[in-house]
Design brief:
The protein is α+β, with helices and mostly antiparallel strands and 165 residues long. It has a domain at 18-111 and 130-135: Orthogonal Bundle (Arc Repressor Mutant, subunit A). It has helices spanning 18-26, 29-39, 45-52, 56-68, 90-93, 96-109, and strands at residues 72-78, 83-88, 119-122, 125-129. The strands form two sheets. Strands 1-2 form a two-stranded antiparallel sheet. The termini are far apart.
């Protein structure tokens, strides 16, 4: 499956920002919970609705918006009546670090017991709890906030905000 070019970025108020653009697509609760269900292998609307608790009309709207943004794709599984499953695209699968970060944050700060856990399984070692980390692709070291330097690339902006009036 080939990746498609991303849709044109939305015109959003405030600082030009990839976080704002991403939240425009997946920043609503039902959108991210639908993505979670697709990661869990639930591809049919009824299961996604049941497992998210989303109102059906809202879920329909969110899945449609995710499809338009290139995050999910519909695949027909029945012609009569027409029925579809939802699957993550490459762009949708790239949301895995975000969903893992939210899961880890919720486990640490919000819930006394972890409702879901993941194990890393691969040949050569026994399964063990999955604890993802940010790793620099250049040097292989784990990244830490204090080791990062921000470069503002948007004309007319600094770290503090816009440079003009």
């Amino acid at each position: 499956m080939t990746s498609q070019p991303p849709p044109p970025p939305p015109a959003l108020p405030g600082r030009p920002c990839s976080i704002a653009a991403a939240l425009h697509v997946v920043g609503e609760k039902w959108a991210l919970l639908a993505v979670r269900e697709l990661f869990y292998g639930n591809h049919r609307f009824d299961r996604i609705a049941r497992n998210t608790g989303a109102p059906r009309d809202r879920l329909t709207a969110r899945l449609r918006a995710l499809e338009e943004a290139g995050v999910v794709e519909r695949r027909a599984y029945s012609e009569r009546p027409p029925r579809y499953e939802y699957h993550l695209t490459e762009a949708g699968r790239d949301l895995a670090p975000l969903t893992h970060a939210l899961l880890g944050w919720g486990d640490r700060w919000l819930l006394p017991e972890r409702p879901v856990g993941f194990e890393h399984t691969s040949e050569g070692h026994p399964p063990h709890p999955y604890d993802p980390a940010w790793v620099c692709r250049s040097c292989g070291e784990e990244g830490h906030r204090e080791d990062l330097r921000m470069e503002i690339r948007s004309p007319g902006w600094t770290r503090e905000g816009p440079t003009g009036p």
